[in-house]
Amino acid sequence: MALNTESKILLINGRENSKPLPIDLVMEILSRLPVKSIGRCLCVSKLWASILRLPYFSTLFTTRSSVRPHMLLSYGEKGQVLFFSSPQLKNPNENASLTANYLSRHQVLTLGTQKLEWRLTKCCMSHYFCPKGICINGVLYYRALDAYTGISMIVCFDFKSEEFSYIEVVKTFTTLVLDGPLINYNGKLGLLIFEGYPWGDRARSFELLVIGDFEKQEWSTHKYMLPPTWKNVVGEGMFCFVGFFRTNTIVLSRRSYVIYYNIDKNTIVKVGIQGVEAFKCFDRSIFLDHVEGLMLVQEF
After folding, report:
1. N or C: which end of the chain has fewer CB within 10 A?
2. Which residues pair with residue 194 across a beta bridge?
3. pLDDT score of 196
4. Which phi and psi (to 5°) does residue 134 adopt?
5. Of the candidates 126, 241, 131, 243, which has an alpha carbon nearest to the alpha carbon of residue 177?
6. Are 94 and 134 in the same domain?
7. Cβ(242)–Cβ(236) under 8 Å?
8. pTM metric for this prediction
9. Do 155 and 23 share a structural domain?
10. Which H helix or E strand runs over 267?
11. PANTHER family attached here (predicted)?
12. Residue closest to 144 by CA, chosen among 122, 161, 166, 159
């Protein structure tokens, strides 16, 4: 059955006095539902399934999802990986809590042609790369060591031009490669360096480094003192760095809760995550700005 957005259809009930709803209005309503609810709606009828498989609806749902990103949580042990999704708080407060929903299936989308081939890109400087890079505006940044001299540097790879460039750490801060995560700070490469025990109850302060003039490799430095309530809120032990949220919030995680630290307001908010208490012993990873898609829904 072919449908278009100008059609009207009776979706509420079968009574004769019921007024039909335009298809575009129906899709507007359904696009606000989570993926699991969309999957249930597919089973209502063949008509509903036809509506939900329309390319227009897929585009509409993706657009809606991009403005309401989620946190993606993964828990792994002995070759088994479980995935959960939780809403990403825009304005976390002390009374907030999150509920993680289990994702029964998970897929990875690989882009490429039907005939997959690897193509080598030449680099003018041999180096050993370090994991956990970051991509900002089409440029991949990652830590590395010169293969011959051992000098620390940050390698920059432009995906559009497929050209490499380098930031020589020795000219700025020798600890850049060893300490602190790379972050996206308002579209610029940034780095967090901690004084004291990193991301734990003994941390006292940290520095935010942001590269300004890329050609001159000049960095601006901002130092932040953690508030006196830091230890009382975060408790004892180490945290994992999750990411830099929006333009001013550092996100950390431990076990079944996350910490939001606003660098502008110098405030700390601890938010619990419900539904994952049974996986404390698993290896955990959390990713920000996860956007739900309809790939799994289209299979049914």
Report:
1. N
2. 206
3. 58
4. -150, 145
5. 131
6. yes
7. no
8. 0.73
9. no
10. strand 267-274
11. BNAA05G37150D PROTEIN-RELATED, F-BOX ASSOCIATED UBIQUITINATION EFFECTOR FAMILY PROTEIN
12. 166
114 within domain boundaries: no
Model pLDDT, residue 139: 92
Same structural domain for residues 87 and 206?
yes
Distance separating alpha carbons of residues 53 and 42, to the nearest angstrom: 9
CB distance 285 to 297 below 8 Å? no
Cα–Cα–Cα angle for 208, 86, 253, nearest 5°? Answer: 40
Residues 78 and 57 both lie in one domain:
no
Residue corresponding to tokens 């208490």: 277
* Domain count across the chain: 2
Rounded distance between C-alpha atoms, residue 288 and residue 261, angstroms: 15
Query: What does the alpha-carbon distance between residue 101 and residue 98 come to, in Å, rounded to a whole number?
Result: 10
Enter the DSSP assignment of 200.
B
What is residue 226's DSSP assignment?
Answer: P
Q: How far apart are CA 253 and CA 71, in angstroms?
A: 12
User: Is residue 42 domain-shared with residue 87, that is, in the same domain?
Assistant: no
Report pLDDT for 12: 46
Q: Provide the domain limits for residue 48.
A: 8-66
Do 25 and 98 share a structural domain?
no
The pair of structure tokens assigned to 246 is 């929006």
User: Distance from CA of residue 34 to its chain's centroid?
Assistant: 18
Buried b (16+ CB within 10 A) or exposed e, 43-79: eeeeebeebbebeebbebbeebbeeebbbbbbbeeee
First to last CA, the chain: 17
Pairing mode of beta strands 283-290, 134-136: unpaired
CA distance 144 to 149: 12
